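Q: Got a minute? One more chain.
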Amino acid sequence: MTTKTIQYPFAFDENNNLVSIKEVDRESRGEHTYHCPNCGRPMRPRQGEHNVWHFAHDNHQCGQESYIHKTAKLILAERFNSRCEPFAICFSVRGICKDFSLCPQANEYRCRWPLPPEKTEYNLLEHYDLPAETEVDIIEPDGETHFRPDVLLRSSNPKRHPIFIEVFYKHKSNIDKLKSGHRIIEIRIKGLDDLEALKTTNCFEEDKSTNFYNFTRPVLPRDITEAIMKYAEECVCPCSANSFPPCQIDKDFFVKNFKCPRCGGALVLRKGYSLFYGCSNYPRCDYAISIDE
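A: Always. Here it is, folded:
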């Protein structure tokens, strides 16, 4: 059986710059040499009229998994280190009524229940000023545990925790790494086509292809007027005297109409020491709210 030729979209040039096949000039390509970012062997640009443009090995093929994983790491590190475009993350944060502390009946009227989540964006270039590194060994305080993030982001501020960026192609991040407490951004790559998207993505948003682990999720005071107007019709809370919209929502209404404030998943009834509503994406998301709250 004939092995299908892999159409590699990236290669190193003679100066070890990672280039896309789309960046190669057909007229001057003979003036340059290219080699594989994974195995280091020579590659040739194929830019015909009928097939998809790609780089190819001569009488050799790298494994697609190893090529994708290695190239994705290099693209992410290069994107960060260029510092030309934002390198941001975006995830949902919870909110509470900004007048909660002033309301005499806030507890009774459930004003402290999470409001619909809002997305917040952080440009990591503003917080991490050191060059991104690949394949760096991180030794834990016990002196025995080692982690090797795919891409490591660090700051010159020792109080700022480093961030691990992990590429998930066929294998998810190691469970011990996820439980280590380190901040981790896990980016899923489905195939060779996703490599080009990595090069142009300015913001990685938490969704089915990107997960965030061990990040602190802030609770932001928000104006309840905007947040819950569409979820109820009348309010008996004293807040209404100040032209606030409804903030009393019963438990069933909350579960049916509110998604998880952390990840947007559905809420489901669970039983532990007592009954509670928890996120359906557990254990990836451990959000929970007690029945008694």
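A: The chain is about 15% helix and 25% strand.
Q: Perfect, thanks.
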